[in-house]
Protein: Phosphate butyryltransferase
Amino acid sequence: MIFKNYVELTDHIISKAKKTPFAIVCADESHTMEAVIESYQKQLILPVFIGDKKNITEYLTANGLNASDFEIIDETDPTRAAQTAVSLVHDGSVRGIMKGKLDTSQLMKVLLKSENKLRTSSVVCAMSLMEIPYYHKLVAASDPALCIHPSLDQKAAIINNAVTALNNIGIECPKTAILSASESPNPKIPESLEAVQLKEMNQQGLIKNCIIDGPLSYDLCFDPESAKIKGLTSDVAGDPDLIIYPDLVTGNAVSKALVLNARAIGSSVILGTAVPVVLPSRAASVEEKVRNILLASASVN
Amino acid sequence: MIFKNYVELTDHIISKAKKTPFAIVCADESHTMEAVIESYQKQLILPVFIGDKKNITEYLTANGLNASDFEIIDETDPTRAAQTAVSLVHDGSVRGIMKGKLDTSQLMKVLLKSENKLRTSSVVCAMSLMEIPYYHKLVAASDPALCIHPSLDQKAAIINNAVTALNNIGIECPKTAILSASESPNPKIPESLEAVQLKEMNQQGLIKNCIIDGPLSYDLCFDPESAKIKGLTSDVAGDPDLIIYPDLVTGNAVSKALVLNARAIGSSVILGTAVPVVLPSRAASVEEKVRNILLASASVN
Structure:
């Protein structure tokens, strides 16, 4: 399946009418509530609110909703609120977690605590999904936010996390490009040699449900013409569904360049945990928060 | 001085009416000739053609020019043509070199041969100049093409090369941002610690004629709003004239993302040699070649 843009992806998720149950941790903050209510009304999620019950009830009522239609857990302490979300994951009542008004570190400390058994991969990482001008479909990329210099094994885990999410979204066999500075492996660029190894691991069946090619330069990833001019025979060049960044600095800079200067429309989600986690930045707009919720909800099987 | 775009820069260079003499090595190739003739007619350069005299004469005549108005050196062997350009630099008759129809490696091998004494810096590097949507002025960046993992000393040399070129262009004290993933130095990201060192070297007068700040994330470089929201006091954040990339893969990917997906307008030049060198890629359009010539010509004192 291919999604040209967020509108197509949203329509697809709504048509599946699965309404993923989501725990909203420390929900009582207006931007969070606004994004959650909008996502609920779009049929994307069924929120379970954790936070100040009185405030949450007021927000819902002010938005014309009946608070008694929702599960609201009255818990104002951030750490206990996060711990409550973990219990809801384990008893199967939610399939996603979203951060409200608590610090990222407070939430992640609880989620990643080994007793809580929420890690399902050796690597917890971020995946973005971008609608980019002059590219013909949505493209995922990882990791633009968490893993600084992933090793070969960690890159394989990052790919597995992303591929599982993309498979769930409906992209059956994501074309996966390992980004470097050119298509030639260069001993002076270790990332380019790792790209060759990841491709081989895919061919040997060690990384499944995707097609990997690399190393590929940015233009060979995104521009079918460049691939044609260079005479590159590749199932991935010019058409990837997923980009694997060599490191955090590259991923961070490229994704910010796309958003700031190309006005790309992005979203992101945390993977590698039992359920996807939405960690919107403080500065994120309501629209971006809704897109993050959409991506997380779509990433669930 | 600030240039909002290429039009302003072109007007400025033309107004100086300096017509930089340029050696065109292996000039007899139609795209090269077209770009050189256009640059000559715009008063940017005075070409000295090295190549097949008969072909060059024909190109000039076909473009309504009088071949006898130009110096044309009949030399069809690429290595000897490159060596001729070196001699022209040394006797002061040219102040720039442009590659025509020969391989980059053939040309650079001659230019960087130690006997030829053309290196003037410990680092030969590329500098780009970009007109980027949603940024208010032209911005230079280095190195997107040559140095794979520059060391601290090499980064200082890269900055010096770029600052000299920008000073010559008319940008007196370039605001220089050292790109990383955030504004916090992080021991797990060595580039971010080097950014702090480069800033200190600038404050101590070891890197002159510019103001350095770093580490800075991409949004803190290019978005004055982000800098304001983060409460960052910096002369550089939100307003750099020059970006220093942490490594080749980052620089390559960011600059290609800007050109492909943001439709930024770019050019590039090789610095660290006695005269700037124009090395257009085979796929470059005539317009891009003209911009490269403009940048090189502007970079000369």
About this structure: Chain A has a mean pLDDT of 96.
